[in-house]
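Weekly sync, protein design subgroup
Attendees: M.S., D.O., the rotation student, P.L. (late)

Item 1: inverse folding check
M.S. brought a backbone from last month's batch and wanted to see whether the design step gives back something sensible before we order anything. D.O. pointed out we never logged the input encoding, so this time it goes straight into the notes. Structure tokens as presented (498 positions):
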């Protein structure tokens, strides 16, 4: 009788306590809030699952914990923990926050190489997964083995959930690199379209595709699997942007520069060599120090020296240092040295040099298929597309096609053809086009050492990842662990420095 009672008690299901009810209600509320935020109504199917896990317990969700084999039980414990962690990381990484490390000096001195950022996806609204089947914490390639970390299909349409704000001018923004849709696997750090332009004399695109030994395989990457970039938003949808003599104009009016903007300068000394310690004291990284070169111009012709805007002391022009990246504060600090004769923006120096040599400068600027002579430090006027606004192909059609073909064809997925001076969109002749997306113009604070919208064009709204919140770690690659590698003064400071 006693045994029978014990057996009945063992088989009787334990009634849920207060804690289980609280957990069930909390899980259901979070599920409903997520559905309201995203519009993914199918997620509501999880509510009966949560109710069963915590309350009714009709399905033995953790039945494997009763396995008699202790080794099997231990293995399944680990599998359960790993799967739970991966799902949690995927949800956080997709909808809320993402880690990002600053890889280059394009935003010096606002953000430094080695800064680790916590990027908020809620600030501008998280994107729905566009490539849903991908491994968390891997952007596009599995480490070491080198194969894709995602499945190309299915590809879902772009959708952005409600955010806490919108992109404003001056915001530092993390986004997927627009020109990263096509990549030469052997030279992934260089823009594919610039590679094709540089190879124009050898056959352009055909040369790049056929020369696998140099360029590797040419691969396509979906929007959300393209490299993450970080720049500062300078131009907003519907605005017209232009640069003249390193000054930025929006709709014809100058805008305020970021506090830590820096340019490349030429520095003329009286013949005194600048010690490496001086560059280090100025905060110039070893990588940027390697770009500095000095030229002896002591015996240069006085007329040439004058035309280049340089100075002489007792008939001696001294030494000329090029490619020194400085903020206005660091420029003033260097100018105070007694052996400094002159400090000039390198763009101004180059403009003087080209004028003296009677040469025309044709830079690689967007659109790179449309050559436009201009000065150093300039960027020709261009209108930034805005959702719902229309561009007409009535005048200057060659330029408009070059400037907006990527937006219409690559980003908004239309068939586009231009022949005999006429535009054809989706097989029909068109004299205008209305944009479906907003676009942004991004630039680096290190103006003369930044590959940005001046080269690869606009950033479509579906490429926007998020907004840096704060720096949670900062490592100086030029220093050792016991000699200042961790920049303690940067930890937990804002990641959106103005």
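Designed sequence read out in the meeting:
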């Amino acid at each position: 009788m006693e045994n029978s009672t014990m057996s009945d008690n063992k088989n009787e299901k334990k009634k849920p306590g207060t804690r289980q009810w609280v957990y069930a209600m909390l899980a259901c509320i979070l599920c409903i809030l997520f559905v309201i935020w995203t519009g993914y109504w199918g997620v509501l199917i999880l509510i009966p699952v949560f109710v069963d896990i915590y309350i009714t317990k009709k399905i033995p969700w953790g039945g494997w914990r009763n396995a008699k084999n202790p080794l099997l039980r231990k293995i399944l414990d680990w599998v359960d923990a790993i799967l739970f962690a991966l799902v949690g990381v995927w949800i956080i990484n997709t909808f809320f926050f993402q880690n990002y490390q600053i890889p280059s000096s394009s935003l010096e001195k606002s953000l430094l190489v080695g800064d680790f950022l916590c990027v908020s996806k809620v600030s501008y609204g998280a994107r729905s997964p566009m490539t849903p089947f991908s491994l968390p914490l891997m952007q596009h390639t599995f480490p070491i083995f080198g194969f894709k970390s995602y499945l190309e299909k299915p590809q879902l349409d772009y959708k952005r959930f409600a955010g806490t704000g919108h992109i404003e001018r001056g915001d530092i923004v993390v986004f997927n690199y627009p020109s990263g849709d096509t990549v030469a696997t052997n030279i992934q750090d260089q823009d594919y379209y610039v590679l094709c332009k540089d190879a124009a004399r050898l056959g352009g695109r055909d040369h790049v595709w056929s020369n696998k030994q140099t360029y590797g395989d040419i691969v396509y990457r979906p929007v959300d699997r393209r490299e993450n970039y970080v720049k500062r938003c300078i131009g907003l949808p519907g605005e017209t942007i232009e640069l003249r003599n390193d000054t930025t104009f929006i709709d014809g009016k100058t805008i305020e520069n970021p506090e830590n903007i820096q340019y490349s300068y030429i520095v003329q000394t009286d013949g005194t060599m600048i010690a490496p310690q001086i560059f280090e004291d100025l905060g110039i990284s070893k990588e940027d120090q390697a770009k500095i070169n000095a030229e002896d111009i002591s015996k240069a012709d006085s007329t040439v020296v004058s035309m280049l805007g340089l100075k002489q002391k007792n008939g001696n022009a001294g030494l000329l240092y090029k490619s020194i990246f400085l903020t206005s504060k660091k420029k003033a600090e260097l100018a105070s040295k007694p052996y400094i004769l002159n400090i000039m923006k390198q763009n101004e120096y180059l403009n003087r040099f080209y004028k003296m040599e009677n040469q025309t400068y044709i830079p690689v600027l967007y659109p790179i298929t449309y050559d436009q002579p201009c000065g150093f430090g300039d960027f020709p006027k261009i209108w930034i597309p805005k959702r719902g606004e229309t561009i007409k192909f009535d005048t200057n059609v060659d330029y408009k096609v070059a400037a907006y073909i990527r937006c219409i064809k690559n980003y908004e997925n239309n068939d586009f053809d231009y022949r005999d001076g006429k535009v054809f969109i989706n097989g029909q002749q068109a004299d205008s086009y209305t944009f479906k997306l907003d676009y942004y113009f991004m630039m680096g604070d290190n103006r003369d050492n930044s590959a940005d919208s001046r080269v690869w064009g606009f950033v479509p709204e579906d490429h926007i990842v998020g907004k840096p919140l704060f720096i949670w770690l900062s490592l100086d690659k030029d220093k050792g662990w016991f000699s200042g590698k961790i920049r303690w003064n940067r930890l937990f400071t804002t990641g959106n420095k103005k």
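Discussion: Confidence is low (pLDDT under 50) at residues 4-11. The longest strand covers residues 464-474.
Action: P.L. to compare against the previous round before Friday.
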